[in-house]
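In this supplementary section we document a worked example of the pipeline. Step one takes a protein sequence of length 469 as its only input; no multiple sequence alignment statistics are reported here. Step two produces a three-dimensional model, which step three serialises into structure tokens for compact storage. The input and output of this example are shown verbatim.
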Amino acid sequence: MKTSDLLVRCLEQEGIEYIFGVPGEENADFMLSLEGSSIQFVLTRHEQGAAFMAEVYGRLTGNPAGCLGTLGPGATNLLTGVADANMDRAPLLCITGQGATARQHKESHQIMDVVGMYEPVTKWAQTIYNAATVAEVVRKAFKVAEAEKPGATVIELPEDVAKHMVDTPPLAPKMVRRPAADHKAVAQAIDIIAGASNPVILAGNGCVRKRASHQLRRFCDATGIGVLLLFIPDPALRDAIIGRMPLSLPAVFAISVTILLILRVVSFIGARNLLHLMTGRYQRPMVEDRAFLFIDLKDSTRITEALGVVRAREFISDFIFDVSKAITDHRGDVYKFMGDGIIAVWQHQDKGALTDAVAAVVAAERTLTRRADRYDNRFGHIPEFRAGLHAGEVIASEQGDLRRSIEFNGDHINIAARLEQKAKEHGRTLVFSEVVAEALHDTGVPTESLDEETVKGYSRPLRLYCLKV
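The serialised model returned by step three reads:
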């Protein structure tokens, strides 16, 4: 019989049911040999489609299907689907034609190094040069394709070799048992899992290929260990695990993204503001008692002139970060960033809110003092600030359409801003109103009274206070 006849008989012996492809002149003998075969040839419109069809067949059944193309462009068209099967761990046999061996050393039409092209993207690729080796080559191709982890193998059959006569019989397939883990390695794995605080199982498609999903589910039910599904989970694996396990990759991904988005939004607008926007607390304007702290960087113009715009922005960003942390650490919310300054807000009705606001100023000043060397070494300047603090009733409401925010309106906000200017005039870090001084009276925080002064935007004089040095 011809070599092509033996090749078809070997494929039948291996249990091949379908070959998908687009034949060419160099596949003529192989196609003639298929005429009396039990193997069904499926003609496709394009070789790439043939390779993908064979891949899907292998993934669904666990048994290889064949895909076929001629030399040159036929082989290159198969490449994408074959490579995908190999990466998706689907068993597949690719058969390509090739020009006669007598002209392969020449620059002959469409002859190229097919095996060399396929080697990086398959488990094994081989040309049949001797008709007597067909049975061995086919047996190895199937053994390699089906062995864990399964993948694609390639057999190239030159047109002249396909015509050679041969009397070698096919080799019978033999079932090979998959290797088992050494009992010492299993014992070591058990010890590692038992000693782990939060073990997680990373389960791939091998659980389905080797029908281990039921055992995996039993193991997880018994231990309570969560499962992350890797790669592209097979539907059977999803059915076996998702909904039964405490963790699955889609759920972990969705939860992680949601948490990251929430944290990002909180970093932009604050936790309380996010809660109020979600619950619609301020869809209608409300009167609330709030404390406002205005903080402004001293000598920002001089620093910008000395450092330049970009370096000055880095300096101000570090300053704002340090001050903002002190505010949030003392139950405050950053209401707005104003260039080189910050407006912070506290719920005045909360017990100790004004004390927290003063403590935030003290903490910010200490932080900047503690980091003075770092600022000096990096920028040649040490940040200082002035602040004004006042509390009273304001109107709180949601504003904006596409971008919603909570805004405050009222004279008491303006007073806090004016007190920050008074801090500059008096050379004090913090100046606050009598409302704040009264709240601090029983706390033991030493305060010092300044003069009564008229504040722009407020009709009557205000008694000003500062912290006693």
